[in-house]
Amino acid sequence: MISLVFLTTLLILTGCNPTPSDSTNGTASPPTTNAKKTEMGLLEENAQEHGRTLPQKLPTPIIQTESGISIPAVQGSYCWSGMCADSVGGMDLLEGHTAVPVVVGEKVSIDMGIEIPPDELELYEYVENKIKPISSTDGTFQFPKEPGNHYYGAFIRWSSPQDSQISLGDTSFAFVVRVVEKK
């Protein structure tokens, strides 16, 4: 009976022993690679194998009106080349930024400066604290005919050719314009 109690106690204490089973008295170290970074590395290799090589540097949108006015964008959240960053979104992203004057109804285009077209392009306008989608497949649209400040946002994504649910990279940004009447 004493032997049974001793063996049971020994088994229980062995299961609770913090020393690794190889008796090295070391502590386990966390993995040195970031799982997201490893996943992105594999995705980049997959993209390169299928002719979809995205640049390493996060693209900066070139937003320009048909009359040549450049509109600066404010960078939002993104995942690119194994790095992800979150930021505030919506109109909060534009707080403190000056609206660029543009003409009512003028056409505007957004170019990401990448030869590979994105698989997903979502454009929207913030109207009275609501998101109003803008229909566009090529990154162009027209400014409204109503004068005043107009706030815009965009989300752009490049996907794996094998699985559209796997993102190779994505970015979001916002910009603000002041629509004015023609002079």
What features would you describe in this structure?
The protein is an alpha+beta fold and 183 residues long. The protein has a domain at 58-180: Immunoglobulin-like. It is 16% helix and 37% strand. The chain is built from two helices and eleven strands; from the N terminus they run H-H-E-E-E-E-E-E-E-E-E-E-E. The chain is globular and about 50 Å long.
Roughly what percent helix? 10-25%
Structural class: alpha+beta
User: What integer value in Å does the Rg equal?
Assistant: 26 Å
The CATH architecture name of the domain at 58-180 reads Sandwich
Q: Count all strands and give the number.
A: 11
- What is the CATH C-level name of the domain at 58-180? Mainly Beta
Characterize the overall form: globular
Largest sheet composition: 7 strands, mixed
Distance between the termini: 102 Å
Low-confidence stretches: 3-40
The percent range for strand residues is 35-45%
CATH topology of the domain at 58-180: Immunoglobulin-like
